[in-house]
Design a protein that fits this description.
single chain, alpha+beta, Rieske Iron-sulfur Protein, 18 strands, 26% strand, binds FE2/S2 (inorganic) cluster
Amino acid sequence: MNLQNGGRDIPVTSTWHDLGPVEILKNSPLQEISIDGTRIALSFAEGEFSAIGGVCAHVGGPLGAGTLSGDEVVCPWHYFRYHRKTGICRLGESHEIAVPRYELKIEGEHLFLNLAALSPGKPMGEYHGSLTRPIQREPGPIRIAGISTTIMTPGHPRYSTSEDLLETALEHGRAQLQAETKTLRLRDLHFRPCEGYYSKSVHACLWPCTITRGDKNDELSQVYEALIYWADVILIATPIRWGAASSLYYKMVERMNCIQNQITLHNKVLIQNKVASFIITGGQDNIQLVAGQMLGFFAELGFLFPPFPFIAHSLGWNAENMERNMKYVQRSRMLRQGARELVRRAVNLSRTLVESPLCESEVERAGRKASPAEG
Ligand code: FES
């Protein structure tokens, strides 16, 4: 039997295993130990060792690589807290999950662990929420979700060039193309920024998003609902801020990592046969860079694009006269016409895809994401 503890071989006796010299093990308040594939979170505090299972009952985070806070082992992935002696993690008043706990003894100068657990684990169980229902297009007219990413002071509406053109496009969709439309203004939604679980492990980034699962007040679920279930076409409008899309746009797309990650992890493409188009306006330039990012990101999610998938406007580097910029857009018949033609192209493509879907079930992965996640 091959046991590992920091790369050292550990002698084996029945279910008791020698973890090594107490004096060395004392030096780490929390460490991960692996015995024949069983991961243990070994802690030492106030002169006493404790051992509990090292695999978080939530979705498998490495507890031994977390932190010790008082008598609690804090999972490094989503910060669930387990009592280091009982292995219990309380989630609210009446709900608890647990990892196994193990018996320890000191003989001579060595610490021993009995791999026959004193208590079993209690797993979290599968998450069920509205965003886990099967993805199926409901019959009916083409549905367009307009997403405005511009920021405004609450209670003080101002004219927005990108939102004006978005409303023009949606109005055309309703009145002339017989589409259903809805508008989501990100500034009206309360949602938390992505907390970077993916940066710890690809397996720590979940669908539905970990924040959506745990925070009932987080309203990005409205955007997920529109993108994954309701809409055939999404139309995203952004201003240009310092050469990039708005900060709210980035706050939204970072939270969409969990959609893309399903392709990497499970070869599961949540977005199929859907169309994306963009409206980009700014006092200053950088339209091509902003459009390039948007096209690249939404292509990675699985969206398809009509010919000429964005319209844009900017006054340019030497024309920083914002009053003039607003008047220009308000009066521009060309831009308004461009917004109508953009939505028409998007709806035409969407109609074709509804009649003969391009992706029926499995979609080939491509690009960098052709490589499955390791581990
Ligand atoms: S809190 Fe441990 S895996 Fe989520």
